[in-house]
């Protein structure tokens, strides 16, 4: 059961923005609400220029359990989201694939996870051809709990 609050612990990706701004990573949380028993409402909270922002997205169920589709504008901007491994009480590893590009994210129920969970994440990262030099740890402090109405980005375009 993915419902509830999750803390972004680590992410592996070839994203050039991450590489260029890795020194500015902000503590990030995600709140998951299961809608109609299948699709997920995702609210991500993070700081940008010292202001708390909320980014709202809707993950639609895909062909198989644990697979979702995140749609943007146009066909080219769809992202496949796959739950790689999860223990609802402590962690979830998510894969995000857009075209040929893949990213792996580790979320924890707290901002710190066990060494065993980190090991699992690192194994998953290597298995998709990513490496330590494109793996980023996120801060464990300075989280946002909310954003005012002027700082909400709605992913429903």
Automatic annotation (TrEMBL):
A GO molecular-function annotation: complement binding
Q: Which residues cross the membrane?
A: none
Matching InterPro entries, A to Z? A1-microglobln, C8G, Calycin, Lipocln_cytosolic_FA-bd_dom
Protein name as annotated: CO8G protein
Q: Name one GO biological process term.
A: complement activation
Location comes to: Secreted
Q: What is its main location?
A: secreted
Q: Which of UniProt's keywords are assigned here?
A: Disulfide bond, Secreted, Signal
Q: Where is the Lipocalin/cytosolic fatty-acid binding domain?
A: 3-138
Q: Which GO terms describe its cellular component?
A: blood microparticle; extracellular exosome; membrane attack complex
One Pfam family, short name = Lipocalin
Biological source species: Tychaedon coryphoeus
Establish whether keyword Secreted is in the entry. yes
């Amino acid at each position: 059961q993915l419902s509830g609050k999750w803390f972004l612990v680590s992410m592996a990706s070839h994203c050039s923005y991450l590489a260029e701004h890795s020194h500015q990573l902000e503590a990030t949380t995600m709140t998951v609400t299961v809608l109609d028993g299948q699709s997920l409402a995702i609210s991500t909270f993070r700081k940008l220029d010292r202001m708390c922002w909320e980014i709202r997205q809707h993950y639609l169920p895909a062909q198989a359990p644990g697979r979702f589709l995140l749609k943007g504008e146009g066909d080219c901007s769809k992202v496949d989201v796959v739950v790689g491994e999860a223990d609802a009480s402590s962690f979830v590893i998510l894969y995000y694939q857009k075209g040929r590009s893949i990213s792996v994210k580790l979320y924890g129920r707290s901002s710190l996870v066990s060494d065993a969970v980190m090991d699992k994440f690192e194994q998953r990262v290597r298995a998709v051809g990513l490496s330590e030099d494109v793996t980023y740890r996120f801060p464990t402090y300075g989280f946002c709990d909310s954003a005012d109405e002027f700082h909400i980005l709605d992913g429903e375009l």
